[in-house]
Amino acid sequence: MKLGSDPPMSIRPHRKSTMNPLTESFGLRCDGGDCTSSFVDSTTNDCERKLRHHHRQRMLYTNLHGFAGRTSAHGLGRFFAQQVPWLRLLWGCVVLGAVTGLTLHTYKQISLFRAYPVSSTTRLLTNQFTFPDVTFCDPLMKKFLTLNSDSLRTESREISDYFTASYMLGYGFASTPDSSGPHPKQEESAGRVKAIKIAYASFEHAVHSWPKFNMSAASARIYDMLIYCQYNQERCSEANFTVFYHRGYGNCFSFKADSRSIKSSGVEKGLVLILYSPSVDVKQSIDYYSEIVTTGLETGGLRVAVHQKDTIPYPGEYGINSPSGMQTVLALSQVQTNLADTPTKRCEARTNFQAFDHLLDTVQVYDRQLADCTTFEHLKSVQEKCGCTIEGLVKTHSGRRPDEDYCHDLLGAQDTKQLPKLLSEINQFFQRDLLVSNMSLIEKSGRLSLRTFSRLAYTDRLRVAELLSSKFPVIGRRLNRLKCALPHLRTGRKPSSCLNICNYTTYDFSVFQSRWPDPNFQIRGARIRLARIAAMLKSRIKEIDTNLLRLRAVNPAFDTNHALNHSIAYHGVNLSECLDDRLNKSLDRFDSDEHCQQVHSIIRQSFLQLRVYPKTLTVRQLYEERSYELVNLFSDLGGIMGLWIGVSVVTLCEFGEISLIVASYYVRLLIRRLALALGTRALLWAEEKPELNQKSQQNRLSKRQRERQKPQKADNQPFRQQRLGSSGRQKLFSNRDPNRYWQPRLRHGLDRSLNSVKAEVDNEEVSKRFSIIRLAL
């Protein structure tokens, strides 16, 4: 008998079949294996692995095919059920096209959602008008009115030397004129204007060293400009105005109402101001600084800005001109804007901040607005690049005076201890240095001579500025910082990263202007109106004198003279001659008609009327909100999925279920491969050191685990011991049948099929089948 052949059927012992039930139930075979009695007793690992792998694949395919037949998604059932190849290909293209369209359409809708579009709606709020702040400045005054710059500069030797040295350094910014050029005189004049501006900008910092010198006190006061004030049909006074120092205009005054609610709208309501513009009065002295820096393009009158309450005014950027001799009417409409804060269009909440003004030496609280952020961001960029701060308001968080090093402070006026020493060294330099000692820049009194320096040749003035910056390193560093900062001021601001305010208020206004008072006496009622104005002026002068005397009683150094009184006195007019009791109404003439015509001319030249009123009490509210929310996205996605593949939420759950089944299949496959790899390594290690491995393993095993390693009656015990004994995973598979695929959905049916297969193991027909398989192998 050949080796491996079966014994005759008559002498073959009848025993229970040990063939894998999966082999018999599914008709699988292990190619290359030995199906003799030794095959039945100890099945190889490769054979068992192939059997399980084929079984799991068929189970997975059965689940996928069943899902395709049961799902409500369009096209999948047709594709799997179709037997004709070209129809199956056609349905495959249809399903693929539908999925592609669904993907593109879904991507478009998600992109729209991530763009966070917004929509604006307009609402009208009746009787909700809030009166704004009104700020006015005199742009022609150029900072000096109450105190003349000449008197300030010559008040003491230190102040005089400070200004003269600043003026000399100002020529460091002037360009060298080209004598062969077409306009050398114009270049020299432009250089002189630059030097004057630099000198006066540096001169403002002297307030830190000489307390009696205050730029706010040098400019106009509210007493010098306010003639008549009426708000909401009630009289108002200087107490309703606050001072805001503008770097170009000097003192500006902001009207802040006690009650911001207006009873009714109309041109007769709101704010009515009669203001005096000192800069256009011929009897007011013209300051030296104003003569130098004027361009001839300015207009007489005031600059008026309307802005949200408690915010920083920007009269130069957002103001309008109100010329003298005119009535300017501003009809306001309030607009409240509420922006939507989205990830693509961010905005910040409306808050307030503290700002320090080093010239007024005060800390004030302002409401935040977009213009403030861009301004402070620009100042911060200049500070980071040049190491100094541009003059203006500085944000502070502690409410204290911040320590800032300003760009225009060329001589360090903020350092009160070092400034006198530096001025003394500059004076000695002009006395002893051979390069400049022959220029006679020192007066007999020991002061620096501004007049002598101004008479020098233009090139000599440039050379003096260069010598000062080179001989004094401290001055040279400050000069270089200012040279770094000035180009940033001229080029303007770059694109900003500031966020808009989520809730802010703006005021749209219409401007109307007419001549005021009447152009001449030929107009009916002109003299009557002049009599009312003259009475108003006389009453105001008396009121100002009384208030100033009261202030002088508190502060003896307070100046009781004011611009209006000065103008009336220098013009030599008598307002009493133009009152009602001096008007002959039958003849429509004053007793001193020519004198009153002079008063009328003065008023037309230097006075103006300003009216600011609400055009309507209804507030227009622009409300912005997101137009595409998450619920809109889900609604559109539901419609898109229903349009392309007929999918609903239940269908998505079906897809999720089949995805979990497929994922579990591949995860289990990966785990088994890793376990097999780890078991193979353990077997190799055990073959090299069998005694040590067996002893150490017996020591690690518990009593219960050692009992499980005893021979069992199960036919697959050798396979189980060989695969799991050395892999260290007895605990994981100790209670499981390794021949069974644990698929949750098919577990019950699989158990039933395996039980039916095991019932037929005792049949003699099974033994014959083993013989046939063994012969085939």
SSE inventory with pairings:
Elements: H1 21-26, H2 37-41, H3 45-70, H4 76-81, H5 85-114, E1 118-125, E2 133-137, H6 149-153, H7 157-170, H8 184-203, H9 215-218, H10 222-225, E3 226-231, E4 234-235, E5 241-246, E6 250-255, E7 271-276, H11 288-293, E8 302-307, H12 315-318, E9 320-322, E10 326-338, E11 347-348, E12 352-357, E13 362-367, H13 370-386, E14 394-396, H14 418-432, H15 450-455, H16 458-471, H17 473-491, E15 500-501, E16 503-515, H18 526-554, H19 563-571, E17 583-584, E18 589-590, H20 593-606, E19 607-614, E20 619-626, H21 630-644, H22 649-688, H23 690-700, H24 703-708, H25 717-724, H26 730-733, H27 747-759, H28 764-776
Task: Report on this structure.
47% of the residues lie in helices and 15% in strands. The strands form five sheets. Strands 1, 3, 4, 7, 10, 16, 19 and 20 form an eight-stranded mixed beta sheet that branches. The chain is elongated, with a radius of gyration of 49 Å. It has a domain at 21-72 and 648-776. Residues 1-43, 713-717, 719-736, 738-750 and 772-777 have low confidence and may be disordered. Helix 7 (157-170) crosses helix 8, helix 7 packs across helix 14 (418-432) and helix 13 runs antiparallel to helix 17 (473-491). The protein has 28 helices and 20 strands. The protein starts with 20 loop residues before the first helix and ends with a helix. It is α+β, with helices and mostly antiparallel strands and 777 residues long. One of its GO terms (molecular function) is ligand-gated sodium channel activity. Residues 714-733 have a biased composition (Polar residues).
